[in-house]
Every structure is written in C-alpha cells, then in structure tokens.
Amino acid sequence: MLIARSVALFVLAALFEIGGAWLVWQGVREHRGWVWIGAGVIALGVYGFVATLQPDADFGRILAAYGGVFVAGSLAWGMVADGYRPDRWDVIGALICLAGVAVIMYVPRAR
C-alpha cells in the first residue's frame, strides 16, 4: 500500500510541477499573460507541498527519485499538451529514469 501511495504522490507532484512550469512557459513564451504565470506559480507551490507527503522522510531520496518521474512526466506532458512526439531515445531515457526511481525508492533496504 505504501508503494501505491508513493507512486500516486509522485504522479500528483509531477502534474503540479510540470503543469506549473508549462503555465509559466505559456504565460511568458506564448504571451498569454500574467494570469497564466500566476496560476503556474501557484501550481509550483502546491508541488512543493505534495512532495512533503511522501511516506519516506528522506528529502534527498525523494527529490532524487522524483527527478526520474519528472523526466518521464515531462515527455508525457509534451505529448498531450503540445503534440510532441518523443523518439526512441527519449523513450529509452525515460524508462531508464523510471528504473532509477524504482531502485532509489522501492528496493528493500536493511534497517
């Protein structure tokens, strides 16, 4: 159950962080204005809060593992929001990152 909760929190964090960054990007680079930028800043703040809800209390481990989720999530976001089509190397890289997440977060450790 803890793994399912952790994965769900990583996905939720990715939605807020990547979505927030995308909103800021749209506001600045696509000239959509301050409302988009402000919504992005709020979403980025919510991401920071969501990251604290992980069952593991080790900040370094959580953020290191989240980096892999961010990589894969960013490619997925680009596909959905911007029509980006990753090539095989993007996909392989994202899978390697997700494998790293699994090792960092979910391999049993001696306590």
Automatic annotation (TrEMBL):
GO terms for cellular component: plasma membrane. The chain crosses the membrane at residues 33-50, 62-79, 91-108. It comes from the Bacteria. It is found in: Cell membrane. Keywords: Cell membrane, Membrane, Transmembrane, Transmembrane helix. Pfam families: UPF0060. The keyword Aminoacyl-tRNA synthetase does not apply. It is a multi-pass membrane protein. NCBIfam families: PRK02237.1. Belongs to the UPF0060 family. This is YnfA family protein. It comes from Streptomyces piniterrae.
